[in-house]
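Thread: Newbie trying to understand structure tokens

Hi all, I'm a second-year student working on a class project, and my supervisor (Dr. K.) asked me to get a predicted structure for one chain before our next meeting. I've only ever worked with sequences, so writing a 3D structure as a token string is new to me. If someone could post the tokens and maybe explain what I'm looking at, I'd be very grateful. Here's the chain:
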Amino acid sequence: LDYPGQDLLIQAITGTMWMNGRLDDPPIAVGFGLADVTGGLHIVMGTLAAIIERNISGRGQRVDVNLLNSQLTMLTHEVTYFANTNENPERPKANSTGAYTGAPLGIYETNDGYIVIAMMGISKLAQLIGAKEYYEMESSNEIPRRGEIHNKLESIFKTKSNSEWLAKLRGADV
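---
Reply by user tm_fold:
Sure, no problem. This is what the structure looks like when written as tokens:
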């Protein structure tokens, strides 16, 4: 591709803007220069590798970095999903954690703010908060029913404050 290297354009070309937000939202850019930062990190890594090679062999190296490739390296989960399914997943209706993430991972409203749940099986979380219908569900990334599950869990989270939920979850080593 022969396009200008500008962060917002790279977010659009790579589909990053499509992965943010909810089902009916327009494309949403990441709130900082993600491609710029990633490209900068790749320049640093390439330069350090070149210095190591020079110290070992005495030969210089060419470091070639571009924003598009740098941004694509940040999308390994999404590219792998597409490569294996040949499908673009739908953005979630209720949860704003992205098109490729399922329940229970998400942002949930409490009665005085928000709480984030990550890296936890639905069954364990359900048992901790009293969502009986999900006690036997073993998934930790339920995509087909994520909207339903998110809405049910959020209705429970809304019954207590952040500090109450954090005490309960941390007390269970979560």
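A couple of things are worth pointing out once you decode it. The mean pLDDT is 90. The longest helix spans residues 34-57. Feel free to ask follow-ups in this thread.
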